[in-house]
């Protein structure tokens, strides 16, 4: 018989969620466990074991496992990821200045090779000499490679040759740009490929960890992963294209929100530990971003839900600007380990450090801050400078206070680099600590939150007065700031959807007056034309106040805390393939987008083969990813303007999409 029970898992920055879901009966059990970044299997097994215990269902009844994650999104928002080597074929150094590629590259190495193709796939000879010279040293300095060739989407042969050389020499993961996108725009395609390369080890580790746990537990079922557009792909494909999992968690939450609320039109805001993700739902579906997903300030070529991701969550870093007469608080975008959580995980050492600092006559520069290793594999620390390696060696798996760790000022910048590489976590006060002190959350150590907020409240503003009268007063200020920044994030998304994206709610005097309910002759108010759906484990404690600020009704589903995991199991497999036909000269038609270029002298013959190739590839890919009986749709876009009284083909695009539900394993 066919099992209709599915296991959904969502690995977030703070929590790992699991649900057991029945196709007809809905949620059978749900549970949460802390995400353990040093060993993801601990969080995954904790959540899965809990739902199995609750339900009493045997593992042999599970027919499908589906995983969503925010780890890739969080890594890009926080500027984390492995060190990658970028190989640019046919590009010039000036091209790095386009589409944010230079900023994204940072200090990672880049090699330029002569070569590439034109729009019709004709090649400029490839010269591998510079790469062959650099590889012996470079392979020990990076954890992966990214390759971007000029017009590689029309002819990938040069990217493939470079990939084969790197794999043979280094045995490291390699990403080619033509594997990720069929769209033109070399620098942005290179950016997408670079980010993918940085994420490979992280997502491979997550999926591998999940697969190992499932095998050990005897769960023999196909495993899917949620893509950034809400569709499902096989775990194997997700390992090769981890960039497609950016916005995986948020996309799954939208699918879950629709299922849990039944609302067709809403603004959906999902608050996690690291990010707040906001999107607009229309006619029961999220809109896809035609220009590519924007994450961490970079616009990629990844098709994903039109969602705006903000570095704002329950674990956001608290910044206090002490320069003015009245101190100002800002949150994010970096995530800290809340002191309340650090004390729960690591015991008395956190409390003792905070008590010692509180006994001091004056509040030190680094008071209330600690550092701890994330526990990632040592291979990911490749390429550290001497200063970075020395400081990293002094940080262990037990938190150490920064006032004891940092002995000279430049070490703070070195520590920030270790954090950005994902090697070290900083611990400090966050909105989660504020909520614990105010009694609105209770899962972690209230004592640590109290000590940390007492320390922070001792800071003085420009007037010479403490920034808050008490720890409780500071906690209320932090929560109020989260409410305001959340409202601004939701408004920024709504304004962008209405074509008013140039208006920044954080800088608009009128919006500030409206949100603050400031009195005056001119009465200003703001609202939304549809309900606000609040998602996330902390949604019930945050979103009522956020909805009130926006004068809108809030819908917080009973299972808002596991909406991502629900979305992971109710989604569909969907795959799109595009085949191109261009005409470099009269009477010649070049078909590209497959494994090789094909030239025709008959336009209709080229078009017919393009339709067949796109359809066959889309259906095959959907079936390879587990779709049982996929449906096919075919769309054609033909650019053939009339020139001197006759149509002249510029480009024809044949776009085939195959979609369907995953086949549930037979039992």
Features:
20 helices; alpha/beta; 667 residues; six-stranded mixed β-sheet
Summarize the structure.
By secondary structure, the protein is an alpha/beta fold.
Explain what the structure shows.
With 667 residues, the protein is of the alpha/beta class. The chain is built from 20 helices and 31 strands. The protein is globular and about 85 Å long. The mean pLDDT is 88.
The largest beta-sheet arranges its strands as 3-2-1-4-9-10
- Decide which structural class fits the backbone: alpha/beta
Computed CA radius of gyration, to the nearest angstrom: 26 Å
Contiguous helical run count:
20
Strand content: 15-25%
Overall form: globular
How many angstroms does the end-to-end distance come to? 5 Å
Mean pLDDT: 88
Q: Portion of residues in helices? A: 25-40%
Low-confidence segments: none
Major sheet description: 6 strands, mixed
Number of strands: 31
Question: How would the blueprint of this fold be written?
Answer:
Layout: E1 5-11, E2 15-22, E3 26-34, H1 40-55, E4 62-69, H2 71-77, E5 84-89, H3 101-105, E6 110-113, H4 129-138, E7 144-149, H5 157-170, E8 174-176, H6 186-217, E9 223-226, E10 232-234, H7 235-240, H8 248-261, E11 266-271, E12 276-282, E13 285-286, E14 294-295, E15 298-299, E16 307-310, E17 316-321, E18 328-335, E19 337-338, H9 339-346, H10 348-359, E20 370-373, H11 386-393, E21 400-401, H12 402-405, H13 411-420, E22 424-428, H14 431-437, H15 446-457, H16 471-497, H17 509-515, E23 532-535, H18 539-549, E24 554-555, H19 563-570, E25 573-585, E26 588-592, E27 598-600, H20 603-624, E28 631-639, E29 642-643, E30 646-647, E31 651-660
Parallel strand pairs: 1-4, 4-9, 5-6, 5-7, 7-8, 11-23, 19-22, 23-24
Antiparallel strand pairs: 1-2, 2-3, 9-10, 11-12, 12-13, 12-16, 14-15, 17-18, 20-21, 20-22, 25-26, 25-31, 26-27, 28-31, 29-30
Helix pairs in contact: 1-6, 2-6, 8-19, 9-10, 9-15, 10-15, 11-13, 14-15, 14-16, 15-16, 16-18
